[in-house]
Amino acid sequence: MELKHPYLLFLGDVADSLAAKTALGIVDWRPNWCVGQWRLEGCKADAGLPEMDARAAAEAGAKTMVVGAVNAGGVLPAHWVASIVAALEAGLDVATGLHQKLADVPEIRAAAEKSGGRLLDVRHSTEKFATGKGTKRPGRRLLTVGTDCSVGKKYTALALESAMREAGMDADFRATGQTGVFISGRGAAIDAVVADFISGAAEWLSPAADPNHWDVVEGQGSLYHPSFAGVSLGLLHGAQPDAFVVCHEPTRTKMRGVEHPIPSIRDVIDLTIRCGSLTNPDIRCVGLAVNTAALGEAEARAFLDQVSGEHGLPASDPVRFGVTAIVEELRKSFA
User: Fold this and answer.
1) Residue 197 domain-assigned?
2) Which residues does the UniProt record annotate as the domain D-glutamate N-acetyltransferase-like N-terminal (predicted)?
3) Would 53 be classed as within a structural domain?
């Protein structure tokens, strides 16, 4: 699906910044797409944008109100419905990343029918995907993969897209999760695609392109995670990456939500090449992206030097230190 921007970010009355991580992620990567934020009484999150309601946002040029907050279960709170109706009445589209569909709420459905505004449930794509074919297609692709879920694959992909463009490369971020779709304005939430069509959805996201064009595909889950490996494998086969970057968080001992130990970086490199070679025999690793938020600067730099030496690859924290070295390795590898 494709979203119209600029956005009004709706934060509701969430209790903390973590609950507004979708909105904050949009502001981090697409601040020029955001005209303001709408917060209800008691909201404890702040995206640092001008305060405005739907009517004021529409007058300021907003096209879509993004519900930039999340909660357990992905259910729309009943007291947010009036704000969504107001946004539709002001002429805006409304988009959410919640599991609950907007049109399942009668008041919202009626308001959308009356205004003509679109209801965009980012987790529920209306695209009809084909099954993956695995046929080599023109253009180049880079995929971020992980030793675990929630280790920074989206932020790494966005940082790579930005640095590649700054280096004069033709590159586009391809979103595979709901926050990524809001940031890119286009994409599909791969974790909500029926299993048989995951690789086909990835092929749709990163279609044939100019031989020098790079699609930077946001990774999901981990090939080693017992809950999400199916999504990770389908995405790997469909994205057909020429290059991949391994994302890692060094202080974890177990993968999130399960008792399985974190695999080594080497394990992930080897398994990604082994599985990825089914659709691209020339797949290769070009760098390591390490989330060092839990480490002091000296400790972080020492760890990056260590893993870089162990694997013969550039290693960096994309948020803390940038990804220039990884982009240079990519350019060298595909010169």
Assistant:
1) yes
2) 39-124
3) yes
Q: Which two structure tokens, joined as six digits, stand for 66?
A: 């993004």
Q: Are residues 212 and 89 in the same domain?
A: no
Show the tokens assigned to 273. Answer: 């090449």
Instruction: Report how far apart the first and last C-alpha atoms of the chain are (Å, whole number).
Output: 34
Residues 74, 173, single domain; the answer is no
How far is Cα 6 from Cα 24, in angstroms, rounded to an integer? 15
Residues 75-111, buried b or exposed e (16+ Cβ, 10 A)?
A: ebeeebbebbbbbbbbbbbbbbbbebebeebeebeeb
Residue 126, domain member (yes or no): no
- Measured CA to CA in angstroms, residue 180 lies from 40, 52, 103, 123, 284 at distances of 25, 24, 22, 11, 24
Instruction: Kindly tell me if the per-residue pLDDT of 77 is higher than 80.
Output: yes
pLDDT tens track for 283-292: 999 999 999 9
Question: Domain holding 102: CATH number?
Answer: 3.40.50.720
Indicate whether 114 and 253 sit together in one domain.
Answer: no
21: pLDDT strictly greater than 70 = yes
Residue-number span of the structural domain to which 95 is assigned:
7-121
Q: How many domains does the chain have?
A: 2
The single-letter DSSP state of residue 187 is: B
Contact status, residue 23 vs residue 44, Cβ threshold 8 Å: no
Q: Measured in whole angstroms, how far is the alpha carbon of residue 268 from the centre of its chain?
A: 20
Whole-number Å distance between alpha carbons of 188 and 177: 7
Q: Residue 72: what pLDDT?
A: 61
Closest residue by Cα to residue 121 from 172, 64, 80, 79:
64
